[in-house]
Amino acid sequence: MSREISYAEAIREAMDIALSEDDRTILMGEDIGVYGGAFQVTGDLIDTYGPDRVMDTPISELGGAGVAVGAAMTGLRPIFEFQFSDFAALAMEQIVNQAAKLRFMLGGAVSIPLVMRFPAGSGTGAAAQHSQSLEAWLAHVPGLKVLQPTTPYDAKGLLLAAIDDPDPVMIFEHKLLYKMKGEVPEGRYTVPIGKAAVRREGHDVTIVATSIMVHKALEAAKTLADSGINAEVIDLRCIRPIDRETVLGSVRKTGRLVCVYEAVKTLGIGAEISAMVAESDAFDYLDAPIVRLGGADCPIPYNPDLEKAAVPQVPDIITAVRDLVEGRR
Amino acid sequence: MPTTVIMPKVDMDMSHGTLSVWHVSEGATVSKGDPLFDIETDKAAMEVESPASGTLHHIIALEGAVIPIGQTVAWIYAEGEDVGDPPAALAQNDTAPPAKAAEPEVTSAPPPPQKQNSPAEPVIATGAGLRATPLARRLAKERDYPLYDITGSGPRGRIQASDVPDNTTRAPVIHTQGRDVPLVLIHGFASDPASWARLERELGGRRVIRMELPAHGRLIHDVPRSFADLTRQMRQAFDAIGEETVHLVGHSLGAAAALAIADTRSRRVSRLTLISPAGLGPEINGAALTGIASASRVESLGPWLRTLTHDPALISDGYIRAVMQQRQNPDLRQAQLTLADGVFPEGVQAFDLRAALDRMEMPTRIIWGKSDRIIPWKHAFCAPGRVSLNLFEHTGHMPQLERTAEIAFLLRQEAE
Amino acid sequence: MSDANDPWAIRNLTPETLRESLRKMYLIRKFEEGAEDSYTRGLIHGTMHLSIGQEASAVGACVGLSDSDKITSTHRGHGHCVAKGADMGRMFAEFFGKETGYCRGRGGSMHIADVEKGNLGANGIVGGGLPIAVGAALSAKRLNTGAVTVCFFGDGANNEGAFHEALNIASVWKLPVVFFCENNHYGMSTSTERSTAVKQIADRAAGYSMPGVTVDGNDFSAVAEVMATATERAKAGNGPSLIESMTYRWRGHSKSDRNRYRTKEEIADWMDRDPIPRMAEMLIAHGIMDAQGVAEMESDADQTIAQAIEFAASSPAPNLADLTRDVYTRPLI
Which of A152, B5, B40, B185 has its CA 20 to 30 A from that of A69? Predict the structure, then answer.
């Protein structure tokens, strides 16, 4: 049975399933208990599973993350919520030096079945320290997997896949998506990690987007279709590992590539996708320069108009694609 | 202060020029007026002279670079002047058109000398000076079609996939515009379709279709073993053009091919112009032909190329280097030697088209230079009375190069 | 037969355990001397952090632990590893970067782990193991294993944020963990006097509402005694303790240390307090061993180390094609 629920509810449902299926699963995070989480994602799970399994941590991101790493290494399956993805900066040591490397460093003697969730992105007026998109930081680290679900269906299916995964999986959830509704089946299902989704088929240009930009790209594609431009929109879903074949196959078909992502454009996922295409045989199918649309090289500002201007918007995508397809860039 | 050497504006609507060849190397001494480098625009190719005497330093534009006009490409230091770091690319605001100067171009090694906030930083593009997308490059390669023969329709002349003719139309359609009867141009032995560029410029907007001889450029696999072979292939290519009537123009071996085509496709050829045609007598300068076809270095190519014109100075070192560049491929050179052996064995024209010339009923003209050192111009005298003869003094085997304006005048006149 | 005035270890540990503890102390000493020698001969690359002089601390801390109890270790971790029962051959093989090493040649000196024996691994980040140990204790509590986790760290780590966050969380959640600080007086070159606001690191315990004890880290019996109290408290569900074991490393911080921050006299003074003869004398004094037995034990240790080095030297090197193995459990798509 499938029904419409929100992205946040879909995540909660996945955690509920995991908690009910396996006693080793625990939730950790700041104010995830009776408060229900800063974005009400854990909600009332504490009522069902109690404070020993839905654990409020002190405001100690480094310590909390490290406890989660140690617990994962020794038999538990923690799901750790950062209140804001920005706070990952406080816990980088444990994420990058420990969680990502322990298995390798110990020659495969341990695994770290750890899930970390990061509410990310701008658009809430929370300014520079509560609005970042830092997924590329973590995606740069071998040993981690990094997901960016874009629909309620994927939010649930990818989280369950992450919980089943034996390695540390980092999930970046765009805050503006939490309220988005969509069809979600009841019960357990998983969405494979490392597989992109073609959200819209087209033959004129490939738009590779992540997170909320997938929705903006789809909206842009709709407008573009009215003027005869058929855009293919790929939802990357997972930026480590990247689904090479889906991206390259699409570029081979369309000959044009536009990458759209909210994180700062410079040195971001768009650079990786562009380079991946340029290094592959798909290069020889490019009939126009590659275009990246990403966040401005500045912190996210407070003023709502500035905030909007700092990240790609639908008209930016429309203009860029149109200029590209019509041969103006 | 060293003297700035810039990419000059040599054409009214020119915004960029391709620096094709440097004649002077870094650190060399030059005198004012010496040729410094060659440039090509989409209309012209020419030599740029040194604006000052001294030594050339800080060459920041590589050969093949596409450079906005007014941009500095090097500096000339007067004798005794201290050669330090390259000066910032200053004083360009006056000369560079602001819109273009501010526009970022593809930049590549070596880096510009100083990364200052100058509005017109030196811009260097490497590669063959051709802008083409990867897909266009791949298609051109697959279809064995030279990129330099393609006019790009993309931004800044970038060649895109749609600009590369597909295999069914690949034969000779190089560019066409307008609705008038097109000129179909067939180049001579060891030349290429681009050799018509200068004449085409003189012709203004006249519609032109360039054909390419087999064993030249892209068609080097199926080399004709005889003139009959050559004619068969050219006829097929001519048929593929699909124009109802054309004005057929050929040069040298290309003129022979034109005559042979006209002989069997007379209804589609409204006019025929033969420039220094082969096929009207047995003599030909076989040494020059094999010399050009086999040369693998500029040193051996140069002297032979200079036999093509009355004035050897017309063939500059830069021109020779550019021609050699086009002839780098040993397979191409071998194909042309094979062709030469088929049509001009042992330095003799093995085919005779005098009877065909007698049969021509359409208006026909022969143009020849009286200093031709490749084919004796007196072969023209075999022409029947209704064929016009235009004979130029002090002109060699390539009147279209030495008498461009006059040839264009003759061709235009016929169009009216 | 035991007297109330006898050392705690003599009264509470079996003769077999005591002899085994001395043997491990010899093995640690010989292992590190052997490692140093191999390094000098150019047989191993990288650097190493030697704990020569700290053997009583490592062995005293681990003597009461079973294989199900966990430890987290530090960059100066060879002693902890041996104390927790590691195999000398596999340790040396790791040093030599061989496929037979504990980390299959991927970790080296700084990351030796022996998960089977409960050693979750040495950590190259100062303070890195502290929150991880708390996590292991959380697992033990939730999974009811009854295990205790001993978290080794040095005096340098007590000024890391991770130390404070880890102690606080462990105390709030009453987790079965013992924070065992080996205070060897220097974080690289910086003395605790210059780096640490409190006089004794054990004083920090008060801030996290747990017992804090300072002990002579070169006295095996004293270390074993405070550890017994702390593990008992942990296993009873009363939460963590902080132990500060005062000791000294004879060697420099690492192989690049020129020893400019301490005097020869200070080093000589601590060398006079060598924990190994002290332990041996205690065992001889209480009739657990005789001098000849001790000498034989020492030469046995020499032999064990020689064999271990031979095993390591003759072991296969990792296959280059396996470079990215174990980055993930399953290869990425």
Answer: A152
Q: At what angle do helices C55-62 and C275-285 cross, to 10 degrees?
A: 60
Cβ count within 10 A of residue A23: 13
Residues of A in contact with B135 (CB under 8 A): 255, 284-287
Chain A residue at shortest CA distance from B159: A287
Complete DSSP assignment for C87-141: -HHHHHHHHTT-TTSTTTTSS-GGG--BGGGTB----SSTTTHHHHHHHHHHHHH
Pairing of strands A231-235, A205-209: parallel
- Residues A288, B160: C-beta atoms closer than 8 Å: yes
Burial A140-151 (b: 16+ CB within 10 A, else e): ebebbbbbbbbb
Write phi, then psi, for A244 (nearest 5 degrees). -55, -45
Three-state secondary-structure class, residue C6: coil
C93 to C31, C41, C75, C319: CA distances (angstroms): 12, 16, 17, 15
Q: Residues near A87 by Cβ (< 8 Å), separated by ≥ 6?
A: A61
Say yes or no for a CB contact (<8 Å) between A286 and B153: no
Q: How far is B103 from chain A (nearest CA, A)?
A: 12
User: In the sheet where B246-251 sits, what is the strand order?
Assistant: B208-211, B183-186, B246-251, B269-275, B364-369, B388-392
Cα B368 from chain centroid (whole Å): 20
Query: How confident is the model at residue C1, as a pLDDT?
Result: 52
Supply the DSSP string of C293-317, one letter for each residue.
HHHHHHHHHHHHHHHHHHHHHHSPP
Instruction: Bin C63: left if φ > 0, else alpha if -120 < ψ < 50, else beta.
Output: alpha
Distance (Å) from the C-alpha of residue A316 to the closest C-alpha of chain B?
20
With an 8 Å Cβ cutoff, is B161 touching chain A? yes
pLDDT in tens, B318-354: 778 778 877 888 888 888 999 999 999 998 999 999 9
A and C make contact (3+ CB pairs below 8 Å): yes
Surface of B (234-273) touching A: CB under 8 A: none
- State how beta strands C186-187 and C190-191 pair: antiparallel
Interatomic CA distance for residues B5 and B402, integer angstroms: 29
Of C103, C138, C332, the CB nearest to A76: C138
Beta bridge partners of B74: B5
B32 bridge partner residues: none
Please state, rounded to an integer, the average pLDDT across all residues of chain B: 80
C-alpha C226/C-alpha C223 separation (Å) is 6
Q: In the structure encoding, which two tokens stand for residue C159, read together? A: 């000024």
**Interface contacts A/B by beta carbons within 8 Å:** 29
Q: Indicate the Cα dihedral angle B165, B159, B189, B143, nearest 10°.
A: -40
The verdict on a CB contact (< 8 Å) between B135 and A255 is yes
In this structure, what are the phi and psi dihedrals at residue B22, rounded to the nearest 5 degrees? -90, 130
Q: How far apart are CA A272 and CA A208, in angstroms?
A: 11
- Quote the CA–CA distance of A272 and A247 in Å, as a whole number: 12
Contact state of A285 with B135 under an 8 Å Cβ cutoff: yes
Cβ pair B154:A285 closer than 8 A: no
Q: What is the pLDDT of residue C2?
A: 59
Can you tell me the mean pLDDT for A216-240? Answer: 97
pLDDT of residue B168: 42
pLDDT tens by residue, C104-153: 999 999 999 999 999 999 999 999 999 999 999 999 999 999 999 999 99
Q: Which residues contact C197 (CB under 8 A, 6 or more apart)?
A: none
3-state helix, strand, coil in chain B (%, to 5): 35, 20, 50
Query: Which residues are registered as beta bridge partners of A234?
Result: A198, A208
Q: What is the ipTM of this complex?
A: 0.93
In 3-state terms, what secondary structure has residue B186?
strand
> Looking at residue C102, what is its pLDDT?
96
